[in-house]
């Protein structure tokens, strides 16, 4: 039963041809011990059966809403549409193939309220395309600010939550092909906010060979683009932070 004294959490999920995984993702949200949430799924013009699955879930649970882009527009525009429709005090994100532990929202909301925290994130585990554990955990850090995040992009998108009572709700994703989430945290932390970590595995990130982020060399190039072209750190400062980024990326994955 929903306790109306609990703040509403708006969960934003972009989807594209997600028929293989989206039901498992949604079920992990339905099973949350924290009931006062709305799930806003924005489908980016899928050509598989994703919409049929979303329609079925939305008919069964009024907390689930889905929108559809008329044409494939990319993750940034898709997530921004979710932000435009979010009603909650807290904004959470989960990708359409990831999974939450059942106490994720409850523990994270309580942690943020009790400590007046603007942005939080958690540790997470890695799973494969069959939902089998890869026996690898990405551990959160106690806290991270702008300069720290440039060296260590530790915030997992599907673990993150923002309190809009502290962080202005006018934030948006920059329309770039990938690493929109990385740049979002850069821009929010640059405003003086600090993100705080919960060192507990509350989410599972699915490693897929076909994903855009699977190519680590290309991923690194995009991070350099953020530092040098978008953030305009200059050559030396970009190289300094990028070297730390590479070190920490290797550390997280080994």
Automatic annotation (TrEMBL):
It comes from the Bacteria. Keywords: Transferase. InterPro entries: Glyco_trans_2-like, Nucleotide-diphossugar_trans. Pfam families: Glycos_transf_2 (PF00535). Residues 10-140 form the Glycosyltransferase 2-like domain. CDD domains: Glyco_tranf_GTA_type. This is Teichuronic acid biosynthesis glycosyltransferase TuaG. It comes from Maribacter vaceletii. The lineage of its organism: Bacteria, Pseudomonadati, Bacteroidota, Flavobacteriia, Flavobacteriales.
